[in-house]
Amino acid sequence: MVQLNTAYGKIKELNAELLAIHVECSEEGTQLSVKRNNLAFPMANDDRLQIVDRYSPTSTYLIDRHGIIRARWLNSIHNRIGPEAIIEALSKLREADDQPTRPGNTSEQRRN
Fold first, then answer.
1. Bridge partners of 44?
2. Distance between CA 48 and CA 110 in Å, rounded?
3. Of 27, 78, 97, 105, which has the fewest beta carbons less than 10 angstroms from its beta carbon?
4. Do residues 22 and 30 make contact, with C-beta atoms less than 8 angstroms apart?
5. How far apart are the C-alpha atoms of 61 and 75, rounded to whole Å?
6. Cβ contact 90:16 at 8 Å
7. What is the pLDDT of residues 16-47, one digit of tens each?
């Protein structure tokens, strides 16, 4: 969490948001964790385990603005992905989004 907190500014510079999901206790416990760790990024609570049912709680997902998972790192609780890998993936995603569409390269034209 400390590493992510330190990297949060760079993540925001890449026009992205970081959201942590806390599954270990109540909403009050989650807010206490945010305050105790002085986290700059938002942390949601999943004490009913609704998100955990769909996603691994120890993994990291990069989801684009359309809700599509663009990258994922399936980790164990003791082997988490570092913020450097997340920032690298965000940079590549941003570069791809910044590329202009070339004439003759649209899906509509490829079907014809």
1. 21
2. 46
3. 78
4. yes
5. 11
6. yes
7. 999 998 887 889 999 998 999 999 999 999 98
Q: Find the domain containing 72 and state its range.
A: 2-94
The answer to whether 6 and 40 have CB atoms below 8 angstroms apart is no
Q: Look at residue 103 and tell me if it is in a domain.
A: no
pLDDT digit string, tens, across residues 47-94: 888 888 888 777 888 998 888 999 999 876 777 889 999 999 999 988
- At which residue do the structure tokens 């949060």 appear? 8
**111: pLDDT confidence band, cut at 50, 70 and 90?**
very low
Q: Which token pair is 72?
A: 């994922």
Any domain includes 108: no
Length of the chain: 112
Q: What is the CATH number of the domain that holds 75?
A: 3.40.30.10
